Amino acid sequence: MGAMSTDRVLYLLGAAAPPVLDLVPVIEQAQADGWDVCLGLTPTAADWLTESIPSLEQLTGHPVRHRHRRPGEADPWPAADVALVAPATFNTLNAWALGLTSAWLVAFAAEAIGKGIPLVTMPCVNQALVAHPQFDRTIATLRGAGVEVLLGPGGFEPNPPGQGRPAGYPWPAALEAVRKRVG
């Protein structure tokens, strides 16, 4: 399909959780909604998707990003109108809230707060990780910074450890939240 000619740019930024393994229908739906989609991944998610990256680049019309640019290297993407960090793992969410930017995806998301880029995130974490004392602080920090966090009814509802339901990850709720953030 390739990149759509549109002025609306969505950065879809995925971490290494099972829903990241089936991004094609999500990208296609976003494109059908009129978004020019740029896909960014954490290093582990990029490793999981190594064989799929060429077809994902063909689908989006943009390089898939997963590392920091080298000094002097041009930004290969158009400017974002909105960014969706999903699936967002426990590690990615905590690193983002704490400003730990060793991964490009987290560095972009952290900087996007200060740049005023609308941000939506949908966690993909189990109930045991949600019970960790840092998790509530992380969600409060991100929400306090203006990030829309889709957690709980209407968004992602954590499951018991080992009982993930990647096919039930609520991508439609995430895409709807992105539409509403941009207006």
From TrEMBL:
This is Flavoprotein. It comes from Kitasatospora viridis. Residues 21-131 form the Flavoprotein domain. Pfam families: Flavoprotein (PF02441). GO terms for molecular function: catalytic activity.
